[in-house]
């Protein structure tokens, strides 16, 4: 479980960095793209976009069942889980307003609270499928009705965007409030239900043994679905500047699920054949909350204060190098904390708050 969480956490930065530099549009490509730019664009679309977020949702749902079982079920277990989720929501609100409005913690906490209603449900899989499909259907309709502008670095829209970027923390805070308010409005409209559906899938996968090396679905079917997922992403990449591309970008939410299952199987193979790598990922997973917040702290710090010119100059190769460097920093920090037998600062605060609520 910790290995999967660590793998998902490290992968999140590959796409999040684009929106830390430019939250409104994410990555804006240059006019002329060389083979390396195009290749990294394809890799990101097929293997990263939405994949690690989906994997994280599956782990989150599985962890809820595991915690409920470990704490011997009953009202006390539910109280502990609900306390953790409520405090996680507070972390999310502070993170979204003060640092980066692309926060996922608030959405995960709210979805997790709803997911508790299905802890002992018998027809969880059908509910999960409906909750996952319905928001995507809604967004497909919206993508057909609303045409997003295609911009590049030579467009007038991009020039206007650059001039409006914050130059100090007060301006950044003002933009964060505006953007995060918008994100909060989107949660009950679409993202909450999609996340909840994926968490229910995670619960089902945990109970069917997917997180302990067992699988109810034959491996060949997983890889068939994985190839279908990659095909949808490839079509998206080939049609990314068209109306069809906008529709496929939404459908890509669904394509992320079989890719995430493929990653689960890959991590099972790593655990069996490369136990040291699996152990490192598990260590990272145990500090996931602190490292997630650290990703935002470093990303926002670099793009808005240390090297703001990177928002204009960085292309995909530079972002990818930054991603690798940030991954290395997180792994080293997690290993050092583990060797020192220290709890991560965010995990420490979370535990103390839960303990305090338990006394109350």
Automatic annotation (TrEMBL):
Pfam families: DUF418 (PF04235). The chain crosses the membrane at residues 50-66, 78-98, 128-146, 180-201, 221-238, 250-270, 291-313, 319-337. Residues 206-353 form the DUF418 domain. InterPro entries: Bact_Transport_Assoc, DUF418. It comes from the Bacteria. Keywords: Membrane, Transmembrane, Transmembrane helix. Coiled coil: none annotated. This is DUF418 domain-containing protein. It comes from Pseudoalteromonas rubra.
């Amino acid at each position: 479980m910790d290995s999967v969480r660590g793998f998902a956490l490290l992968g999140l930065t590959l796409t999040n960095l684009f929106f830390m530099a430019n939250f409104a549009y994410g990555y804006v490509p240059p006019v002329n793209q060389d083979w390396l730019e195009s290749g990294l664009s394809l890799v990101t679309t097929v293997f990263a976009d939405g994949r690690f977020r989906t994997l994280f949702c599956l782990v989150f749902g599985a962890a809820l069942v595991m915690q409920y079982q470990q704490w011997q079920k009953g009202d006390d277990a539910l109280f502990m889980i609900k306390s953790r989720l409520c405090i996680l929501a507070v972390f999310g609100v502070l993170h979204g307003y003060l640092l980066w409005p692309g926060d996922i913690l608030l959405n995960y906490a709210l979805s997790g609270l709803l997911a508790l209603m299905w802890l002992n449900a018998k027809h969880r899989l059908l509910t999960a499928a409906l909750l996952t499909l319905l928001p995507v259907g809604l967004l497909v309709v919206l993508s057909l009705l609303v045409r997003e502008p295609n911009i590049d670095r030579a467009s007038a829209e991009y020039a206007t965007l650059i001039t409006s970027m914050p130059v100090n923390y007060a301006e950044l805070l003002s933009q964060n409030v505006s953007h995060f308010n918008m994100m909060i409005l989107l949660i009950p409209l679409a993202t909450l239900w999609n996340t909840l559906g994926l968490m229910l899938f995670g619960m089902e996968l945990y109970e069917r043994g997917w997180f302990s090396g067992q699988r109810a679905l034959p491996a060949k079917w997983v890889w068939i679905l994985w190839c279908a997922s990659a095909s949808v992403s490839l079509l998206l990449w080939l049609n990314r500047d068209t109306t069809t591309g906008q529709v496929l970008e939404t459908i890509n939410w669904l394509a992320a699920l079989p890719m995430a299952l493929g990653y689960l199987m890959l991590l099972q193979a790593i655990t069996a054949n490369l136990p040291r790598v699996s152990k490192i990922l598990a260590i990272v997973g145990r500090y996931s909350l602190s490292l997630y917040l650290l990703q935002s702290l470093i990303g926002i710090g670099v793009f808005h204060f240390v090297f703001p010119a990177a928002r204009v100059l960085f292309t995909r190769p530079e972002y990818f190098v930054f991603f690798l460097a940030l991954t290395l920093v997180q792994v080293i920090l997690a290993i050092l904390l583990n060797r020192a037998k220290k709890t991560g600062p965010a995990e420490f605060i979370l535990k103390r708050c839960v303990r305090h609520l338990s006394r109350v």
